[in-house]
Fold this sequence. Notes:
It is a single chain. About 30% of the residues lie in helices and about 15% in strands. It has helices at about 15-30, 85-95, 110-140, 165-180, 205-215, 245-255; strands spanning about 30-35, 35-40, 45, 50-55, 65-70, 75, 80-85, 95-100, 155, 190, 195, 200, 220-225, 240-245, 275. The strands form 5 sheets. A 6-stranded mixed β-sheet has the order 3-5-10-13-14-15, with helices on both faces. A 3-stranded antiparallel β-sheet has the order 6-2-8. The termini are far apart.
Amino acid sequence: MIHRNSTLRFSRTPALIRFFLIASILIALIAPMNFVLITPGPATSLFPKVLTIKDSQGVRSYPVNGQINLLTIYITNPETDVYGAQVVGCWAWGDCAAMPRSDWYHDGATDEAETKSGTKDMVQSQNVALIAARGVIARKFPTVDISQIKDSSIKVSLENTGGPSGGLVFTLGLVDLLTPADLLQGRNIAGTGTIAKDGTIGAIGGVTEKILGAKKAGASILFVSKENCSELPTRVEDITVIAIEKIDQAIDYLKSPYAGEAKGKKGVNSAGIRGCASVGA
């Protein structure tokens, strides 16, 4: 058996190649990227100042025993450049998401146009929420008559916020204000999703960031659309995330006992995600 000694030799990367590699990395870090950055925004409590009933023409409103939070996200404006270093930092820090710009803005979008569109969507979601609230109250609380309530009777005091994702929350808030049922039972909850006139809950963007926002607000429950199931993390802690298709499901859940819900406190196991056959990775 013959053993031969051999010498392993490693060639050194030529200086010119190393220079181009380093230069390419630096250029990528300072070059504008076709992404937007999304981070959790502040949660806004609906009661007692944001959502109120005025000039109700004899229709009674009821005191609220708890809180409902409207969730927001921060997203870079369409005319704002996002650089490679920001995208890398976003991925590294974790409390942020970098997503393709085309997922949020169309070609030629401007800051002014997006602001106007977001404001219009917010107002429309409030109007549709009243229609949806009428429907679910008629189905779940048939003895309550809110036929005299008009759009002008609903006051929403909310600045610098746009988009349609508050529809679910506005509808829940109206049902709580306009019916004698103690839906919240002292709980602090949150929700995010669009609302249709028939009470259907639609998907929204930034659902993962809104889960973080709900947890920071101390919410024990977060209602989302079933259409967002594939975007949810496989595991959540300290909050119960409930995916629904109709606003009626949220009402039914809130009216039922809630012993198994997460309490939003450190060390308390969450009930996790309900209503999804599968969730994202």
